[in-house]
Amino acid sequence: MLLSPSLLIIFGFLVIPMFWSLYYSFTKGGMLGKHTFVGLQNYVKAFQHPIFLQTLRNTTLYAVMTVPTVIVLALIVALIIFQLPRMQGFFRGTVYFPLITPVVIAANIWAYIVNRDFGPMNHILKLFGVTPIDWLGDPFWAIPAIVMMEIWRGFGFYVIILFAALQSVPRELYEAARIDGARSLWIIWSITIPLLRPALGFCFIMATIFNFQLFDAIYVLTKGGPAWKTSTVSWYVYQQAFQSDNVGFASTMGIVLLLVILALSLIQLRFFRSDVEY
Amino acid sequence: MAATFGGIQSRRSRFGWQTVCYILMIVISVATVMPFLFMASTSFTKSFTMMSYPPTLLPKNPSLDNYYAILFTFQEGLFPRWFLNTLFTTVCITGGSLILNTLSGYIFAKKEFYGKQVIFSLLLSTLMIPSAVTLIPAFLMINKLGLFNTYWALIIPGLSSPFGIFMMRQFISSLPSELIEVAKIDGASELRIFWSIIIPLSLPAMAALGIFTVINAWNAFLWPLIVLRSNTMRTLVVGLATVQSEFNINYGLVMAGSVLTVLPMLILYIFFQPYFVEGLRMGYGK
């Protein structure tokens, strides 16, 4: 009884909409008016649709470039902070700071930083003799520019998680390894990293789920352009549903995205399943 | 107490090694915060000197013009209205969801009922659903309920979250069940137990969840962008994102608005930081 308000909201705004979307994905129609059942037609169309395939490729590219980088960086930073005798809290607080700001604002600032004519990024590159790059306007550089922003804004989250995991590794293991004469880098590689496996797995799954939904940064920085080159699936779904009033097809693409995320999460869950207990 | 790999390094090299670590962390921290210093600096720069090159961290002729403009003259005082919209919805979402999530967390932690495990795993699996899937039906639902372009459209879906329920359940599971049993024997009602025993004991976890909820509600973008249409109803973040595309970009003005948007969260972050890190640890396990 007391559970009902919470369940009503979660089922009402998450679970039911998911099945509703699944139904729409088999229909044709706009926001208002009738939806006619068309079977698998939308799915067939999706896998022949050049723009959708492009956005799916882009989304994968963003994730492939962002997820491993952000986690390796976070692991290194967490290990460094862990070595410090003082100010651990201060540094953790600092690297997490970008995450308390809205993506929209972070992206606005980023647009200034990578601006071709007066941004600091090109200014620094110029000192090394690099000719100014039109980061967000050039189809080749736009995706890396957005990936850099995502890395800068997001890595602090994984630092906190991995740091907490480091704290829970028993000290005796290190002591024992040291008595055996092991070098510190070897200790990190052969003891710390295997013990962090569950936490690393968690980070990879979360990062995959987050990065496959990239939207806010695209909205602010490029609106998916030039020529859909930076568009993600989420952006294209939004564009089709709320600007082109193509609800059926938008739902189909959303469901495909859900299936991709689900499949990747399950694969990662299996890969990171750990037998090590401590 | 600092936790380190104490003893890994030999005594002689430890000092040098730690110095290297400090220098690395200072470089990383500065690089992380630097873009925000640019934001602050730009907000104090008059727009016509904005395109000055090379970029500088300190404004050459600092002025408060941008702040005056965004607070008083911009669209006849629209910005303060956006601020109040955001404040009102954030307060409602945070207050409501703290009570509902704690209540649900308590029930999942301490009560037995038919189908509990199934419902709980279903709740957790909703964390994987991308917003692209739920967006359209949720939007249509808000329309059907006649809530389009009202504060309720923001508040109601925010009143409960799978993550919040999960976090509160984890915390309340660790509380001793004997307390509840004793209260029951003394004849306390369910609501009384929740109000006088569970809530006071859960305050640390509620503080952590509360600050997450405040930040998420304050910074939300996609959902408010869709369900709020008129200019006066916008939240700060949506306002800042759309201002950019609708008018000629005046970076100084946008950055002044950004500083005013981030500032309340920064203050909250500084005061509640211990709860914050603790909350992340509680919510995400090991």
Mean pLDDT of chain B: 83
| The CATH C-level class name of chain A | Mainly Alpha
From the alpha carbons, calculate the radius of gyration of chain A and give it in angstroms: 23 Å
Straight-line N-to-C gap of chain B: 19 Å
User: What does the largest sheet of chain B look like?
Assistant: none
**Net shape of chain A:** globular
- Give the spatial strand order of the biggest sheet of chain A: 1-2
Instruction: State the helix count of chain A.
Output: 13
Q: From N to C, what is the helix and strand string of chain B?
A: HHHHHHHHHHHH
How many beta strands in the DSSP annotation of chain B? 0
Query: What is the H level of CATH, i.e. the homologous superfamily of the largest domain in chain B?
Result: MetI-like
State the separation between the terminal residues of chain A, measured CA to CA.
Answer: 40 Å
Count of individual helical segments of chain B: 12
Of all chain pairs, the largest interface belongs to: A-B, 97 and 92 residues
CATH superfamily of chain A: MetI-like
Helical coverage of chain B, percent range: over 70%
Number of strands of chain A: 2
Structural class of chain A: mainly alpha
